[in-house]
TrEMBL record:
GO molecular function, one term: DNA-binding transcription factor activity
Gene3D superfamilies per record: 3.40.50.2300, lambda repressor-like DNA-binding domains
Protein's name in the database: LacI family transcriptional regulator
Domain HTH lacI-type stretches: 6-60
Residue spans crossing the bilayer: none
Keywords assigned by UniProt, alphabetized: DNA-binding, Transcription, Transcription regulation
The keyword Transmembrane helix is annotated on this UniProt entry: no
Listed CDD domains: HTH_LacI (cd01392), PBP1_LacI_sugar_binding-like (cd06267)
PROSITE patterns assigned to the protein according to its UniProt record, in alphabetical order: HTH_LACI_2 (PS50932)
Organism: Chitinophaga dinghuensis
Domain of life (superkingdom): Bacteria
InterPro entries to which the protein is assigned, alphabetical: HTH_LacI, Lambda_DNA-bd_dom_sf, Peripla_BP/Lac1_sug-bd_dom, Peripla_BP_I
This protein's record includes keyword tRNA-binding: no
Amino acid sequence: MKYKATTIKDIAKALNLSTSTVSRALRDSHEISAATKQTVLEYAAKLNFQPNPIALSLKERKSHSIGVIVAEIANSFFSQIINGIESVANEKGYTVIISQSHENFEKEVRTLQYLASRSIDGLLISVSSATNDLQHLKSMYQSGLPIVFFDRTVEEIQTHKVMVDNYQGAYNATLHLLEQGFRRIACVANSEHLSITKERVGGYMAALQQYKIEPDPTLIKYCFHGGMLLEEVELAVKELLAVKPRPTAIFATSDKLTTGCMRVLKKHKIAVPAAMALTGFSNSELIHLLHAPITVVQQPAYEMGQVATELLLQLIESKRPVKDFKTKMLQTKLVFPEK
């Protein structure tokens, strides 16, 4: 049997009232008597009646919903961000519609079009690793859709942005390896054009240069899909292992790349850290339960979600066009394995 939601017409018919009377009673209008309101509300509660959000959005010109696009919900970093987003949105009465790009540009475009068709009031997005063309976002933004970028931001669209200090986080991670005595340090990074990649590779290079080590281009490998495809990470690691002299440590620039490198090294029976040191970005609570606990750069993901949502709701609820945009920079933390 197909589910059929209760409507105002159903309530009106059952109570022998007009639909307009029921509608006003549900909205607590002063035009309706207290007795009629109570009758309508009690009957509506009995049927578990919920107002049609699409009808309400047409009436109020607001859907009280926001769209969120991330690369992958299963990624602990993004799941923690989503928890932060929902904590603020739900408190403010907004529904959150979450979608994944899976690091695919075409899927990101289709997802944005779908969310727009659902009349979302605003968008939170961390762009995919494959996103080079920003026309789909520029078009929506120019049409009046409030957008806030988090984590992976873009320079071409002037709006609020929330990120971590990627440069400093990568610098700290690489410096930690240098302080442990490693000098041939490789870098496995996300798609080359992403903002986070440029900043993290920049921090990696700066730490090397502080130790008077000239960065070696053959020790930097870019993974277009950011670790979503293990085969891509395996190729990067195998190429690094073939470099002469071989690197003695690897710095990975994202959660997926960090765990991906660990899996590949284990597959090739290269012990971590005895035969190859490894550090990288990771928010996974399981990272220290793996066969080789490692030092990682942890991001304040939950806080990032909260801050981004607060900024988006400010844009949505502002009575005047916002022209003063903020870039919020949050700090990372170097987390060492438990002894």
